Amino acid sequence: MGTTQLESVPEPKYWHLKTVISEALDSDFAVGEILPNERDLAARFGVARATLRQALEQLELEGRLQRRRGVGTTVAPPRMGVDVSTTQHAWPADSGQGAWESLDCSTAVPPLAVTRLLETEAEEETHTVRRLRAGHGQPVAAELLYVPVSSVPELSSIDASSGPARARAVLRELQRLDLEGQDRAVELGSARADDARELDRLPGAPVLVVTTRYFSAGRTAAVSMATYRADTCRLTFGDSGDLEISHNGQERRAS
Asked: Which has more pLDDT, 228 or 238?
């Protein structure tokens, strides 16, 4: 393996090195491949190991690299697209659709911020469905779906009071409603302790928070708050609800 010397540039050396390594990832490495150790990489690019570490940390933050315990630093898979357009409307899908897995469901008065989004009475209870989304074999998003009890009045009392079965029952009842529309907001945030644990990230890691309100019968029927890992996901604004995956400038529809 030859040595690549960096040219003298006005930008920070680690930042230029990041660009050089990024180009090498596209041409010399495959997704999932383990990178050489720091000593070999530093020799290849003719830099100090401290400079190399800064560049690798930035590439990890940008989602190009993943550090895996017991394995090393590997080339990350393409970022998963998160469609944030509202040209097509659909209720949250049950497990098996859209790669979401229903984990649990509880019924209680939601936080005040959620009550305001739902435009419900302060003491009205909601079903809170907790779901997890995976991509490329790793967790990429955690969701809390808030559904007022009044939105699904026919929910059978014989269903389990909590757990995945209860979550699926709430989702099935939502599908029975006529969806009149939805709106969506996206903001950059930091992972809270609960989200970080589910997404296998450190608390405070950058995340994308996608808040969606679903409307039926002239009212807000449900609110979704989904937290996506910023290092593995990107936003798309396509005219369909399909996810888009981008890699090396090429896009394809996810199946």
From this structure: 228
